[in-house]
Write a structure and sequence with these properties.
Blueprint (H helix, E strand, L loop, with lengths): L9 H32 L1
Length: about 40
């Protein structure tokens, strides 16, 4: 499973970093939307 993350395969590593950044962006957007939504429904 960890073979793809070796130093001999930088493409897989950069793609993993992109996925992490995309996931972090989704989390940040969600954290900003939750207070707005809770304010609307309260």
């Amino acid at each position: 499973l960890l073979e793809g993350y070796g130093s001999d395969n930088p493409a897989a590593k950069s793609q993993g970093i992109k996925q992490l950044m995309a996931g972090g962006g989704v989390v940040l957007i969600g954290l900003q939307l939750i207070p707005l939504l809770s304010g609307l429904f309260s």
